[in-house]
Design a protein that fits this description.
Blueprint: H1 5-40, H2 45-93, H3 99-126, H4 129-161, H5 163-166, H6 170-185, H7 189-192, H8 195-198, H9 205-214, H10 216-246, H11 250-305, H12 309-324, H13 326-333, H14 340-372, H15 377-402, H16 404-407
Helix pairs in contact: 1-3, 1-4, 1-6, 1-11, 2-3, 2-6, 2-14, 3-14, 4-11, 4-13, 9-10, 9-14, 10-12, 10-14, 10-15, 11-12, 11-13, 11-15, 12-13
Length: 409
């Protein structure tokens, strides 16, 4: 398999871009989580997840509306600039105005998906499908290396600088991202093709939803994302509830979350470089999609049988590592044969709106459990996780059996 000089540079700068995105998020996520948990407690997580839904829909509307006008590169720079401003304000003024932490947590759950979506949409539109199996794992692996590197910042510096100041690292990392994305974009097919004319001019969300409804592959991706994020929401709530009870100091929470993030990324790297290619080659895309809920259900059973901070931390690490590696690779492969509208507009609905809005389903359930069975909520969430994985497995088997288009990928 040979590559031209332009293709090699495109792949290189794409890898630098995903390194920066995942590295910055590995810095911001544990810091944001520790600040939010200290200021609002774990009981507030369902409420912030619900509050994210209207913001999510608004962001997706403006994204689809202005993307054809400003183009992918300017859109990425706009999102990056907003993120730098939000994180910097939180770093400087969160003590005087704690509400900033609530707003920053909401934006944190949206912007990283927009950034990754911008990058992967460009990659899908440039890399040929015959090369996707070999390149996607390496691109994901570079993002994981960024996550490992970024995790060292909160993991080892939070107790020295203070959690708030860690958010200031967004500025230098995102300046590097904007440069690397520009260099990749200049060598992509989006730069040479008629990007504006290939996108449908109607930016309304219902058009993107209609496209998803008409496309079996997009329906499959949507359902897979919902199952994964509902599962992630349940285990994340369990993890944060145990974290609140076992580690009381905010900076120590930031450090612990940073180290947990590093472990997640190391495990993800192993799954990507060793597991993804072997699993996909051995089981195929269908078998890989069936394997994931089986593995996660087994992990949830351990958490249910032996509840405790260590076991819940392990289950959280394992699910996140699968989400960031094998699940991500086989999910992104489903987009390869689709048209530009699906790769940008429908993908925005699935990867950003549906990805975070799925947690609203978890939020309603958790709020109800807090009201009627608060003393048993952790046990009940473990039980619900097992049921979700069983439903996920059945849905995957049904989709691949009914859709010949999905089964041939």
């Amino acid at each position: 398999m040979t590559f031209s000089r332009s293709e090699k540079l495109f792949i290189f700068f794409s890898m630098i871009s995903v390194f920066c995105i995942c590295g910055e998020y590995a810095i911001t996520r544990p810091t944001s989580n520790a600040l939010f948990l200290t200021l609002f407690s774990s009981k507030a997580y369902p409420w912030v997840w619900l509050a994210t839904v209207p913001l999510n829909l608004l962001v997706i509307f403006f994204y689809n509306k202005f993307l054809p006008k400003v183009g992918p590169f300017r859109m990425l720079c706009t999102i990056a600039s907003i993120t730098i401003a939000v994180n910097s304000l939180a770093a400087i003024f969160v003590t005087q105005a704690p509400l900033i932490s609530f707003l920053q947590y909401m934006w944190k759950d949206i912007y990283v998906l927009l950034m990754l979506k911008q990058l992967w949409s460009m990659v899908h539109s440039t890399v040929e499908s015959t090369r996707a199996k070999y390149l996607y794992g390496f691109i994901y692996g570079m993002g994981t290396l960024g996550g490992i590197s970024g995790s060292f910042v909160p993991g080892f510096l939070a107790t020295y600088f203070g959690s708030e100041k860690i958010l200031l690292f967004t500025l230098p990392v995102y300046l590097c991202l904007m440069l690397s994305y520009k260099l990749a974009y200049q060598r992509s097919k989006l730069k040479t093709d008629s990007f504006n004319t290939d996108l449908t001019p109607d930016p309304r969300a219902r058009e993107a939803f209609s496209l998803i409804r008409r496309t079996p592959i997009l329906v499959a991706v949507l359902l897979l994302v919902v199952f994964m994020q509902v599962s992630a929401g349940l285990i994340e709530y369990q993890f944060n509830a145990h974290l609140e009870l076992n580690i009381l100091d905010m900076d120590l929470r930031t450090a612990y979350c940073g180290k947990i993030g590093a472990i997640i990324n190391v495990l993800s790297l192993t799954f990507q470089f060793l597991g993804a290619l072997l699993v996909i080659k051995t089981l195929g895309v269908k078998g890989s999609h069936i394997l994931i809920p089986i593995l996660l259900c087994t992990s949830a059973l351990f958490s249910f049988a032996m509840p405790g901070f260590a076991i819940v931390s392990f289950s959280y690490v394992f699910l996140k590592a699968i989400d960031f590696s094998l699940f991500g690779v086989i999910r992104e492969m489903l987009y390869v044969p689709l048209q530009l509208d699906a790769k940008f507009r429908a993908k925005a609905i699935i990867d950003v709106f549906a990805y975070r809005t799925s947690k609203a389903l978890v939020s309603f359930g958790l709020i109800a459990l807090q009201a009627v069975a608060s003393s048993y909520i952790l046990q009940l969430t473990s039980y619900l996780s097992i049921l979700i994985f069983i439903g996920w497995l059945g849905t995957v088997a049904f989709l691949f059996r009914r859709s010949s288009t999905i089964a041939t990928i």
